[in-house]
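Bumping with the actual sequence this time:
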Amino acid sequence: MTPIRSAAAPAAPVPALLVIDMQNTLVAMAYRAAGTVAAIARLQERARAAGAPVVLVQQGDEELEPGTDGWRIVPQLAPAPGEAVVPKAAPDSFLGTELDAVLRARGVTEVVVTGFATEICVESTARQALSRGYDVVLVADGHTTSVRPGPGPYAAPEASVAHHNEIYRNLRYPGRRVRVLPAAEVDFGGGAPATAG
């Protein structure tokens, strides 16, 4: 008779908080700016307390010239000493950057994605993370997009955020775990997630 072997429990994820393009110029045009910044700031506090990496990504281009005030990360989300800040020049935070190397050096297997703008840099980066083998948590109230100047071809910002949250709730990648969670339910492995309030 063959002995019954118990299946090994899956390894616990090693999460990192990814904060994309929360820079002065961009936050100034963002929908629900104050609420999004506050949600990400609480996530930063909890990630740091749990010992989880916090990685900030910072766009630099002709509209966000490095060194200018508009290019700087908003003060409420400034990196702590020793935290990685990854410069980028494209919507995909992995393209031509050190992001993948930074995450792998820290043993990260899951990225908790936040930032600006929902349908551009947040979306591009989350999809690339999945393609590169990471699990993804999209923080439902931790990403935002620009306020629209009135009726036009773009979806309203609240609709865009809701649309992407719903897409990720139903997105399936073989071998990957994809979740959409409010900031209050994100667990960095250092204890129970925060309660809302």
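The tokens above came from a reply further down the thread. The chain is about 30% helix and 20% strand.
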